[in-house]
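Lab manual, section 2.4: Encoding a predicted structure.

Procedure: take the sequence of the chain (263 residues), apply the prediction step described in section 2.3, and record the output as structure tokens. A sample record is shown.
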Amino acid sequence: MFDFGDIVDKKIARRREVVFIILAGFFLGTLAILNILGLSRQIDLSFTIGGTTIPFIVFIGVLPYPITFLCTDFISELYGRRRANIVVWVGLALNIWVLFILWVGGVLPPQVELLENGLPALDDSNHTFFQIRKWTFGATAASMIAYMTAQFVDVHLFHSIRRLTKGKMLWLRNNGSTLTSQMIDSIAVVTITFFYAPSAITLTAGGTVFHGLLILILSNYVFKMVSALLDTLPFYIGTSMLAKYLHLDPNKEFLEEESANPE
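Recorded output:
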């Protein structure tokens, strides 16, 4: 007997998996870009107000970074905490994979003559690769510590706020979790990178180390904060549209997940 309901269920299940793969793909793809290019350039967006120059310097890697938190928030809202945490762990594995490829690329023949600074001569065609390799390796500890801490804080706070508000106030869990986790990320990336890979960071001339680091931390955090606030409306609209498209009730899914995994 023809079962139309079974066909519909399979179609919806396929939609859910496709959307999940798209969200996870954007998250992981952005993460890979950040690993390789994240600290390779500092962008000076300083501006002047009333004759006073306000320093505003961000790493190129921070530009697409807010999308990673938006993706994990979508996954947390629509698919639950467990899947969001799985994506975060896969992101860690991706970090290690990128480092492995860079390491292999540097040890395979032909052997490259390195100068005292650990890089080939400027006119050597391998210089660019080894420069990126050095920056990426140098910033690995900062990137991975900041990434793991910030992403897990984001997922944990998202669900904690959701639990406290009983599934209401979507804007609060979206912004509260993201703003807090991104502050942790900004502090960790800048400070750890500076102490373990100082060549990857250029501080503002004429100031103290503390002042230079503070400018970088605040600049990168303000950029992330503004991005997080601006993504509130897209998050509301996107959650509503995706919930209908995927035939999901986020609040129902949340209650079922809480019942199955009480803390």
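Check your result against the sample. The chain has a mean pLDDT of 81.
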